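Before a colleague's protein record goes any further, I have to sign it off. Alongside the sequence sits a line of tokens, each denoting a local backbone shape. I want your independent view on whether this chain really folds as the tokens say. Where you disagree with what is written, explain briefly why. This is what I was given:
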Amino acid sequence: MYKYLFSPIRINSVEIKNRIAYPSLGLLYSYDSKLNDRYYAYFAERAKGGAGLITVGPVGVDFLGSGLLALSLSSDDAIPSFEKLSGIIHEGGARAWVQLFHAGAYSHPMLIDGREPIAPSPVFSAYSRVTPREMTLEDIHTVQHAFVQAALRARTAGFDGVEVIASAGYLITQFLSPLRNQRTDDYGGSFENRTRFPRELIEMMRKALGPDFPITIRMAGNDFVPGSTSDVETPQIAVVYERAGVDAINITGGWHESRVPQLPMELPRSAYAYLALNIKQAVSVPVMASNRIADPQTAERILTDGYADMVNLGRVLIADPEWPTKAFEGRTDEIRPCVACSQGCTDQVFSGQPVFCIGNPRAGFEGERRIEKTADPRRVMVVGAGPGGLEAAITAAAAGHRVELYEKSSDIGGQLWMAGAPPHKRELLEFIRYYTAMIRKFRIPLHLNTPVDVEMIRRKQPDFVLIAEGAEALIPPIPGATDADVLNAWDVLRDNPPLGKRVAVIGGGAVGLETALFVAAKGAISPEILYFLFTYEAESVGRLRELMFRGASRVTVFEMLPRAGKDVGKSTRWILTDNLKRYGVKINTSAKVTSIRQGTITYDRDGVTSAETFDTVILASGSRPLQRLSNDVAALGIPYVTVGDCIRPGKINDAIHGGFLAALRIA
């Protein structure tokens, strides 16, 4: 089905079985810069899953450039552990690469024992919040030598190739950028001088490694930082790399500090493939495309339309390491989705915590969370088809139990339908596609529109019950909150009712802000209509932008805390905040609502009582667990486990991981 995606390709002397690459992604499975069993188990599954090329990294070339958290190949002592890892990757059927890394100004003193980071120039870094020391000529030559030595160690350890990172705002991009490189010597100023550091580095590496060992480079297609390198200059940089001896070029988006989203749901699938095409048109070596390539159809199209020669599946292979095998075998519906939420990966790394995946309970836990086939199949009744119940059901079925799934509503998914309603959140509905396919795969009887009570459980007499009752909207103790004309966020996100011109949302947590954005976007023109109007110049650019971000309602959020969005993910909060501003959503913080009467909201703020009148009032005050069944089932004497929000309201990962672990407890 995917003829080109699964065709082989050569990078220098190395043949790769298909066009699928797993790129370097920080995992933080150790805090001593060393590989361990958790890394080995993680990469073993990615290699066995069918990817053609697996890149381990980022791997530091020296301590100043990588610190305590990144893996390191800065000494020969690391060779044996990397040799073990290359063997594991080869055993899985993939080619093994190492990405060599130096953060430059992005190094934080806290991670390098309080030492001063180095960079081309002493320019303050908004990412690390420090001003680095300007590199001397000796520093430059020392770092170049460190890259070469690390590359030699990677080859000694059995890796098939090395990749140099020249993206994301790290050291090499700092040399390239006129914003960060203010040197007046041979390494600054002109284009030739700003490209000198990476050019020399690649030439040195090529000389040391010989003509046949693959050297690739990961570069920014556009820094997406005003005043820095844009996609007008990047093809010229790629030509420099090719002439210096690079065998393939891996294209990604911009810097970590860019105000253009690089990874989350807001970024459309394959949105940065155009950056790869921009480079491909300038060079003759293979080019790889990156960022939000989530499904096999998109991956194949990138190849057939000439955007690139290979595709990177990063977080996608965290979510499902078997993505390549399932695509090859035509089982695309069974691919566990990456929904680009950033919660288990990017948010974790930015917080200095190990990577996991909200939708794959085994990611990062491959060595300990195993589904073992039972020798004693049980009749299992799963009550509730939200994400927790769904994961519990398919995990129990995968273990060999006889599972039946019951849901009181007319479809599976539970709160996923509401979570996937706001703009750019529809990726979450991919979970419903996946679980539907897995229910079909395991032939799990599904009983919709079927409320379950104790009498039904007594009548069915299962061997084990998994209860995933879920939660319900919490009504705050505000006078007027229970009035018939007051809506709650769950109703609005689920049913999408008509609303008034002036809308109030009470509650500025994640649900409240997402609801506010959902409401504010109602009535704004769609991307398809924007494309049509822009193509035929039907409206001015200014008017089009207004139509994009002006919906049918003006929205005001009331949040009693000093800051809204406290529970929004660290790496995506700024995106949500920016979008709320674009849609003109007003956010009143430190505003405690004291009453709601016929659309009039009275609230206290800084000791002052105020009132505003709205056409529609929406409550977004959280949720509370449903425990009607779980409180009664204990009396039956049937073994049971509760799952998800009926224990306590949490995030999607709490439900999915909880459902998985609960199913492993069936006995």
